[in-house]
Amino acid sequence: MRHHLREINRVPGAGWVNGHHQENGMENMTLFEVVKIGRSATQSVVDDWIETYKQDRDTALLDLINFFIQCSGCKGAVSREMFRHLQNSEIIRKMTEEFDEDSGDYPLTISGPQWKRFRINFCDFIAVLVRQCQYSIIYDEYMMDTVISLLTGLSDSQVRAFRHTSTLAAMKLMTALVNVALNLSINMDNTQRQYEAERNKVIAKRANDRLELLLQKRKELQENQDEIENMMNAIFKGVFVHRYRDAIAEIRAICIEEIGVWMKLYSDAFLNDSYLKYVGWTMHDKQGEVRLKCLTALQGLFYSRELCSRLELFTSRFKDRIVSMTLDKENDVAVQAIKLLTLILQSSDEVLTAEDCESVYHLVYSAHRPIAVSAGEFLFKKLFSHRGPDEDELPRRGRQSLNGSLIKTTVFFFLESELHEHGAYLVDSLWECASELLKDWETMISLLLDEPVPGEEALTDRQETALVEIMLCALRQACECHPPVGRGTGKRVLTAKEKKTQLDDRTRITEMFAVALPLLLAKYCVDIDKVTNLLQIPKYFDLDIYTTGRLEKHLDALLRQIWEVVDKHTDTEVLEACSTTYHYLCNDEFTIFNRVDIARSQLLDELVDKFNRLLEDFLQEGEEPDEDDAYQVLATLKKISAFHNAHDLSKWDLFTSNYRLLSTGLQNGDMPEQIVIHAMQCTHYIVLWHLAKVSDGSSIKGDMVTLRKQMRAFCLMCQRYLSSINTAVKEQVGCFYHSVLLSAGRAAQLHPGSQFVTRSYGQQDDEASKIEALHKRRNLLAAYCKLIIYNVVEMNTGADIFKQYMRYFNDYGDIIKETMSKTRQIDKIQCAKTLIMSLQKLFNEMLSELGFTFDRSSSAFCGIKELARRFSLTFGLDQLKTREAIAMLHKDGIEFAFKEPSPQGEGGPPLNLAFLDILSEFSSKLIRQDKRTVHMYLERFMTFQMALQREDCWMPLITYRNSLQAGGDDDTMSVISGISSRGSTVRSKKSKPATASKRKLPEGEHSSDAVWLNREQSVPTPVMMHSPHLTSTVLRDPNKMRPEDSYTPTFSMPAEQHPHQALPPTQVTWMLTQRQQAEARQHQVSMHYAKMRNHMQQAIRRGSGLMEDDEEPIVEDVMMSSEDRLEDINEGMDFNTMDIDLPASKNRRERTELKTDYFDPSSIMDDSVLNVSMF
Asked: Where is the SCD domain (predicted)?
C-alpha cells in the first residue's frame, strides 16, 4: 500500500485530477483520506507508513505532517521545500494564511456518522502508530521530536481548528506514550528481579555472562524510559499545562479526560498531587461538560481500592466541592457526583460526615429520576449494606428477619425526611437497588399485624401510617412498572422478562393481601389515613384468583369490612376510596361480579332509605333544624354522593329528594352550606349519568324527556344559587354548573357564571397566600374556559378572561394562554375579535377611572399597551396564517377609536383616539399589502384637519399611521400604481409619471379589483391600493367624513359580482367594499378637482411638515381612474411627489419600524460581524 502514502503537493504539472494525484492511471490517497474513509485496517496503514519511513523518513514525516494539517480542515499542504527550509512556526503561519475562513466547521466538529468514525479512526491511528514504533523508531530522536514540536506549535495557534485537533492528537499521543512507559517499567521490574535472582545464586551456579546481559538490558530499558519521560514531559508542559484552561470547553474536556486515563494506567508516575490538582481545579469549570469529565476521571480512580489510599489528601481537599456538585445545575454532572460519593463511601466510612450524607439523602425525592436513583443507591449503601455478625442467623421472613429491621430503618428515614407526601418517590428511588427489600410484603404485614416480641419496641401510630404508605407505593411500583407522576416521561414498553415478573408479582400480591387486607381493615378501621391507603390495594389484585384460589370467604370478609368503613366514616376521601374499590370489584368480566353487586345494592338500599327517612324529618320540622339531624342528613348525603360519583344510582330516583332539599334551602335561606354543596353535587351526578346513558344510546323511552326536565331544573337552581352570598356555595355550584353544561354542550344563559368567575379574580389579592383557595379559583377558571373552548358559550365572553392575562399572569397565565391558543385553533377571526374586545374593555375602564384627559405614560395605559404586545406575540411568525384575523382586528380597533365624538367639541380628537397607540402593537403582524388596505380604511374616518394636527393629543393617530406605512415598497404610490394591477411598476418619489406606460381598461372589462384577483388567485391577497399621505383624506366631502356617519359595523359584498373570485368571503369583504365605495366617489371628486387643488396647495404651504427642499409639492389623486383626467392633472404640474415629514414617534416599537427587515441576516450582523474571523 505504499502508493497510498505518496507525497501530494499542490504544484503545477503534478497530475491533479479531481483533487487527487494521478500516477500510471492509479489514484493515490493521502493519509487523511485513508483514515477518513476507514476501509483499510489501521494496523496495515501504519505498517505501510513505517516501511516508507524506513526508506525515506523525510517523505514519511511530510505525509504525517500533512495528515495533521488536513485533519484540522486546512486546504493547504506542506511542500518538501517548506519542510526542509522553514521552521514549524513559519509553516504554521503559512498554513493559517491558507485556511478557509468561510466556514467554522472542521472534521472534529462536523456532525454525521462518517465524521464520528473519523474521530475514532484518528485516535486509533495515533495509538497504533506509537505502539508499532515503540521498539525502534520513537527513539531515533527525529520522528517524535518533529511530531511533538509540530503539535506543540499547532496547539498554541489562534486558529481553533488547529488548536483543537493538535490538542486531541497530543493527548492521545501522550496516552500512547504512557502505555509504552508502563511496559518499560514492567520490563525493568522483571529484569531487575531476574538480575537479583541470578546474583543471589552461589558462585558455582552463577552465570556471569547472564548477569552482564541483564545489566545491559536494564541499562537500555532505563535509557528508553528516560527518553519516554522526556517526551511525556514535553507534551505535558508544552500542551496540557496550557490547554487544560483553554477558552474552548471541548479542548479542556479532552485534557481532563486523558489525564484521568494516565493516572489510572500509570498510577506510580501520575497518581500524585502534582497531577491531581489539575482535576481538582477544573471541577470549578463553568462548563458542565468539563466538570463531568473531572468526575468520570475520578470515578475511574476510586473504583480501585488500591488507588483509594493514595487519594486521601485529594479527597480531604476537594470533598466539599464534590458534595456541592450533587446540586449542580447540569443533571448529568449531579448524577456523576452522587456516584463518585458512593464510591468514596464504599472505600471508607470515615471520609464523609453526617452532614455530607444528609445533603445526598434528600435527593431521593428529586423530580429528575437519574439523580434520585443515584441518591437511592447512596442511601442503600449507607444504611442497608452493613451487616452485623449476628444478622446471618436471623430468619429470612417475618417480623424478626433482617428485612424487618431494614424496613423499620426505611420507615424511620421516611419520617425524618419530613416529606411524607413523597413516599412514591422514595420507593422509586430505591427500587433498582432494594427491590427485594421493598417486595417483602410478608414482613410488612407481619410488622402491622403481629404483636411485638418481649424486648422489641413496637411501631408507633405515625410509623405504622408511614409503613402502610410505603407498602402501597411498593405495590403500585411492582404492578405498574413505571415511575410515579412527575418523574419520568411516561410509560415505557416492558420486555418479556419484565412482563413475566409483573404478572408473578401481581399474583403473589393477590394471594397475600386477599387474606391480610380484611384483617388490616379490621385493625385500622377508624384510622382515616391508613384506611384510605389500604382501600387502594384491591385495584392491584388479579380478581380471577378469588375464584381459582377459592378465596371467596376472604372476599366476603373484605366486603363486610368495607361496609363497616362506610358506616363509621364521613370523610370524603375515605368514602371515595370505598366507592372506587366497589367499582373495581364490580367488573362483570369476573365471576365474583354477582357477589359484589349484591353487597353493593344492599349497602346503597340502606343508605337511600336512611336518607329519605332523615330528609322527611329534617324538612317537616317547623322550627330551626336540629344540629344532630342536620349532621345525620349531611353524613348520609356525603356517602350517597361519594358512591354516585363512580356508580349509576338512577334507579333510586334521588333527583326529587335532592331538588326538594335545595328548593327548601332557597326558600328559607338557612340551609347549612355543606348540605347545599353535597345536595348539588349529588344532583349534578344524577344529570351526568343521564347524559352518559343518552350519549351511549343505552337510554330507554322517556329518558330524554326526563333528562330535559332535570337539566332545566338543575340549571335554574344553579343560577339561583350563584346569586347567593355564600362564597363556598358559589364556588362549588359554579364548578357543577360548568361541568353539566360542558357535558351537555348546550348554550345557556351564563351571565351569572361568567360574572362569578370574573369576580373571583378580584378576590385573589386577599387570598394569594392560601394555596387551597388558589387551587379552587384555578379550577373555576379552567371550568369556565372549557365552556368557551367547547363552544358552549360565545367566544366573545372570553374577553373578560383575556383582559386579566397580565394582571394575574403568575396565578392564571397558563390557563388563559392555553385558552387563547385553543380558541385561535377553532376560529382565528373570532379569537382576534375577542382579543381586541378585551383591550377595548380595559380602555373603557381606564377612561371611566382617569377621565379622557389621562396621561399616556400612566401605568394603566402602559399596562394595556403591554398586554397588546403580549397578544401580538401569540400570533406567531407566520403572517399568512393569521392574515385575516389581524386585518379584522385592525378594522375593529379603528372603528372603536373613531366611534365616540370628541368630548372637547368640534376640532378635538375623538374620545378613544388613544386606542390607536395600543392598536399599533399589532401593525407588525400585517403583511405589506394589508398595511396599505388598513391605511386606506383608516383614512375613511379621518378629515383633512386631522391629518394636519401635530399636537400631543393627536400623537396616537400619527404613531398608528407611521406603523402602517413602515415597511411598504413606497409610501407615495403614483396614480398609475393606484389603478393598475398589483404587478405594475411603482415609480419612486422623484420620478415623473410616464404617460406612455399608462394602461387603459377596455370597456366592459372587470374593474381593477377583478383584474388583480384573476391574476393572483393562487395567492389570496386582498386588494391593496397605496395612497399618498394626505390626498385621500383631502379629496372627500367633509360632511361625509364625520366618524359617526362613516362608521359601518358590518360589510357585505354580493358573491355574484365576482364569480371568479377564489378568496374566502371573510377575507376580502370589508377590504373590497371600501374600495368599491372609493371608486363610487371618484366622479364626484373629479368635478371639484381644480378648486380643491388650489385649496390643497395653500394648505400644504401653510403646514410645517414639508421637507425643506419640497418647494412645489404635488398632490396626486389616487381615487381617479380615468386616463384623461390623469393627463389633465399632469399637464400643469411638473414637480415632484409630496412627502410629509411627521414628528418622531415616542413609541418604542415604532422607532425601529423603518429599519431593514429583521429577518434578514445582514440586518442582524453588521460588516464587522460578518467579516470577523472564526478563530
From this structure: 240-325
